[in-house]
């Protein structure tokens, strides 16, 4: 190459000779009639294209400037796979009872490259239907069993293999015909959704029948381990509806078709069943109470929400009427909630007539089937017509009020007005009838902590279960309660409200969203009972304290997870000493104490050491953790199975030193060769060697005289050396620690 000249990159020319398959010699080589071809590649990525089957052999390669070298393999034999072929044979499938053909058993034999796809048409009087068969190998048996009677023609139309697609099949050998009269059969028609049946109601299931009419059908109903059998004969249609008796027990039922028989008289056993559930209760409807009664007195013309109590599954359809206003007129309410209402604007006694839920008819609770609406009497100038007084013989009774409420009459006075006068007349006892007023004043409800001043401890990390603060309620339930929670660092308290408290003692659970680290003051702010009376608590009332502590923590002082026997494992603790540390060693749970913020353990034995939790003195909170350390046994090695051996070797001979290891591979070991001990002389180290092994034993061949001793051993995790230590030990003995 001339200096400064750039070659034409990677362009090159290759030459080959080609011989078609039918012109190859008997030995499969090129003959004299081969064809020589060449290809110019502009880059190293250009590849020639070949299309004819035959033998191709590279003969030369060269670039613009140099001849190249052709290496093996230099020849390639291109073969085209054969086109797919199909041959079929068939035999009748006959009914074992009637002996009539019910289908064909077709053997498919194929030639080509699997897998195959075989297509065929099914031609009947009602039209043509195309089907496919996937064949993984070169043989398959196809079972053709129509469900309907008639003349069937099967025409195999095309075949695919892994190489060729849509290879057309033609000829009479690919057509099969048969007159089919299948045996009787029956199947339950699948429901588009799960059957949800109602208690005390029948269930209807539809059956499709196949064969020659009339049919005889046998089926059974199974529930709670009990089986009830039924039979229906002389069915003259291809469709039959099974209607059960009213199902009086709830739970899971199974209805199974057991056998069917058609005109041929052959009894065919069936395996068609369906499972369904029957609800255990009927939907129920009743009126709810307003102020403890099924009656309310409202302002005339005002719409009233009559509370409904419904069980079942929504939506509900409630039929009702007004017994005092067109009792023959039935009204309907569609309710989506179990605690819905009927909106009424007429006075009278309303009665629930009927109820149903999303599917099932229901039952009306007759003891709570009516609700009465009455109007508050319109005010009049006369005392007898006032809306807040009712006549009780010689006196007027005013409706109840709450202690401390402001009413139209002085609620703090209860007694008889003995004198009355105005600007024109003085009091005249002969012409005056005393006016007696009575009114019941209900005591205000109250709420107080059962343990006022109590301090409750919470752990920040253990807020999975709500803590309970008991509160005593006085009044008539249900109560509504308003509780105030104030953090020591916040000037603004948070309020939590609770409604429908049905008991006189309430276990108050503080929502976790209202708690943070530190001290909280919890007090009752307001209470209200079912009579509408309420009482607010002034500031400074009895309260309880809730203190939320942070949990202690533990962290390893080293990030590594693998330790050796004899090493020290250290952890750092945060919190208030003393601490209790919970751990497991090889699956056994244990507990230790630490008086400082450091926790140490000596790795005495191999195994898995896991810290599972820690608690401290200040909070008594236990923090859960999972810090694992793996403690490994020290490695060991022995030579010649730990026995002392003397081996005499002749000049030019050798001896095998077998090192056996325990521990975790790979192993790294150091051994010495010393002079043999003679009487009156000390042994001297002649040489020190280091070796490695990925296995649990290694053989070293030696032809040198001397005493061999292992002085250091190291595996994947741990190491040990006799040099500098006490005892040393002979190298041909087991070193175990």
Counting structural domains, the number is 7
| Main β sheet profile | 6 strands, mixed
- Considering DSSP H and I runs of 4 or more, what fraction of the residues is helical? under 10%
- The radius of gyration is 50 Å
| Total beta strand runs | 57
Gross morphology: flat
Q: Would you tell me the structural class of the helices and strands?
A: mainly beta
Instruction: Enumerate how many helices there are, as a single number.
Output: 0
Which architecture of the largest domain does the CATH hierarchy give at level 2?
Answer: Sandwich
| CATH fold title of the largest domain | Immunoglobulin-like
Strand fraction band? Answer: over 45%
GO molecular function: structural constituent of nuclear pore
GO biological process, one term: protein import into nucleus
Domain Nucleoporin POM152 Ig-like: 9-76, 282-370, 635-720
InterPro entries: Ig-like_POM152 (IPR056541), Ig-like_POM152_9th (IPR056543), Ig_POM152 (IPR056544), Pom152 (IPR037701)
């Amino acid at each position: 190459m001339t200096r400064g000249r750039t070659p034409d990159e990677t362009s090159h020319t290759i030459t080959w000779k080609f011989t078609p398959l039918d012109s190859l010699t008997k030995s499969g080589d090129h003959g004299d009639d081969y064809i020589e071809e060449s290809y110019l590649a502009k880059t190293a990525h250009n590849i020639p294209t070949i299309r004819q089957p035959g033998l191709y052999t590279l003969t030369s390669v060269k670039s613009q400037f140099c001849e190249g070298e052709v290496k093996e393999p230099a020849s390639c034999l291109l073969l085209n796979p054969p086109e797919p072929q199909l041959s079929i044979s068939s035999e009748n499938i006959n009914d074992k009872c009637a002996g009539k053909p019910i289908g064909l058993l077709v053997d498919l034999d194929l030639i080509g490259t699997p897998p195959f796809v075989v297509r065929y048409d099914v031609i009947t009087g009602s039209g043509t239907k195309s089907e496919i068969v996937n064949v993984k190998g070169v043989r398959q048996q196809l079972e053709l069993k129509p469900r309907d009677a008639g003349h069937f023609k099967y025409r195999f139309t095309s075949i695919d293999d892994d190489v060729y697609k849509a290879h057309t099949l033609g000829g009479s050998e690919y057509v099969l015909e048969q007159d089919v009269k299948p045996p009787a059969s029956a199947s339950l028609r699948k429901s588009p959704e799960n059957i949800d049946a109602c208690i005390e109601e029948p269930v209807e299931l539809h059956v499709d029948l196949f064969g020659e009419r009339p049919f005889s059908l046998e089926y059974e109903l199974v529930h709670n381990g009990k089986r009830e059998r039924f039979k229906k004969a002389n069915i003259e249609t291809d469709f039959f509806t099974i209607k059960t008796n009213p199902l009086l027990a709830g739970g899971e039922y199974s209805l199974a078709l057991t056998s069917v028989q058609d005109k041929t008289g052959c009894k065919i056993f069936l395996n068609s069943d369906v499972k369904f559930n029957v609800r255990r209760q009927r939907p129920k409807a009743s009126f709810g109470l307003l102020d403890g009664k099924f009656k309310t007195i409202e302002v005339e013309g005002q719409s009233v929400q009559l509370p409904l109590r419904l069980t079942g599954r929504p939506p509900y359809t409630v039929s009702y009427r007004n017994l005092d206003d067109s009792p023959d007129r039935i009204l309907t309410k569609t309710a989506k909630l179990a605690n819905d209402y009927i909106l009424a604007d007429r006075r009278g006694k309303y009665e629930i007539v009927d109820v149903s839920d999303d599917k099932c008819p229901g039952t009306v609770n007759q003891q709570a089937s009516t609700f009465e609406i009455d109007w508050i009497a319109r005010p009049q100038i006369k005392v007898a017509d006032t809306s807040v007084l009712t006549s009780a013989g010689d006196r007027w009774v005013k409706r109840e009020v709450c202690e401390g409420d402001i009413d139209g009459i002085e609620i703090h006075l209860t007694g008889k007005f003995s004198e009355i006068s105005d600007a024109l007349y003085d009091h005249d006892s002969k012409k005056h009838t005393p006016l007696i007023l009575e009114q019941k004043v209900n005591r205000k409800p109250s709420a107080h902590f059962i343990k006022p001043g109590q301090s409750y401890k919470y752990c920040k990390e253990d807020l999975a279960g709500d803590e309970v603060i008991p509160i005593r309620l006085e009044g008539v339930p249900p109560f509504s309660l308003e509780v105030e929670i104030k953090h020591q660092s916040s000037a603004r308290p948070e309020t939590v409200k609770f409604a429908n408290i049905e008991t006189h003692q309430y276990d108050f659970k503080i929502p976790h969203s209202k708690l943070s680290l530190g001290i909280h003051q919890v007090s009752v702010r307001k209470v209200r009972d079912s009579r509408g009376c309420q009482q607010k608590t002034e500031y400074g009332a009895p309260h309880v304290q809730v203190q939320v502590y942070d949990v202690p923590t533990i962290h390893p002082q080293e990030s590594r997870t693998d330790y050796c026997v004899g090493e020290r494992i250290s952890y750092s603790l945060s919190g208030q000493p003393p601490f209790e540390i919970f751990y497991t060693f090889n699956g056994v749970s244990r507990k230790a104490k630490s008086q400082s913020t450091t926790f140490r353990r000596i790795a005495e034995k191999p195994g898995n050491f896991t810290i599972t939790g820690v608690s401290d003195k200040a909070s008594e909170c236990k923090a859960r953790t999972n810090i694992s350390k793996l403690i490994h046994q020290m490695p060991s090695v022995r030579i010649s199975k730990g026995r002392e051996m003397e081996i005499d070797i002749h000049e030019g001979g050798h001896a095998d030193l077998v090192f056996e290891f325990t521990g975790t591979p790979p192993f790294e070991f150091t051994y010495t060769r010393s002079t043999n001990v003679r009487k009156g002389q000390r042994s001297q180290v002649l040489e020190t060697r280091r070796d490695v092994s990925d296995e649990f034993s290694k053989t070293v061949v030696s032809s040198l005289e001397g005493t061999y001793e292992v002085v250091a051993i190291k595996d994947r995790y741990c190491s040990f050396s006799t040099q500098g230590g006490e005892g040393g030990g002979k190298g041909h003995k087991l070193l175990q620690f």
